[in-house]
Design a protein that fits this description.
The protein is an alpha/beta fold and 244 residues long. The chain has nine helices and twelve strands.
Length: 244
Amino acid sequence: MKVLLVEDDSTNADAAALALQDLGVELSRISDGTKVIGFLQRNPVDLIILDWKLPGVSGLDILRWIRANLGNQPSVLFFTSRILEADIVEAFEAGADDYVTKPFRHRELAARVGALLRRKNSAKKFQQELVVGQYRLDFTSRVIYVRDQAIDLTEKEFDLAAILFRNVGRVISRDVIAGLAWGHAYDGSSRAMDTHISRIRRKLSLNPENGMRLNSVYTHGYRLIVGNTDLEKPEQADCQRQAA
């Protein structure tokens, strides 16, 4: 399991790394809050240990970006010296899964991280299928069924479709899609993503007749919507570019 530790205090970061060493996780460390989003766009992780007070940007702002762009993945454990109930409630409302107060106890940190990772690992094992309306995604065989008919998709097309279906209703930026599906930042000069998205829309018949709509969001990314309601009209120029 991959864990990202975001902590600008080297003493705390070293202590946290020591506490986690027996869990067998693959640990990455970042001390500058401004570098976290770029890292996550290129490197999917299972859990983030996130300090609240960071240079450049607050941990709370990073958490809000994670939930807006990556959905419920990854899990986030807040690392903070704040103990007021209002602060803790604010963190949970922003999407935190758990928190540990500083100064922390090694065994408690390891136990909380271990519990979150076990929960995530269990969810991965049991989420073998995802059903959205007339669509069924089988993650074991990596096949998508539309009205019980298997659709022939390439590996990359399945990966992209899975990202969209796991985040129904959310706007997913091109940077995030590129990081999750291709493992690198989005190249604005490349048509690869547009081409793959166009093929997914056509192959899966993502249209109102099937209760789905895949919209391009001008200058940002894409959103898969359930139903026929126009939640956001893409700019005409972007639509023409996608249809090309």
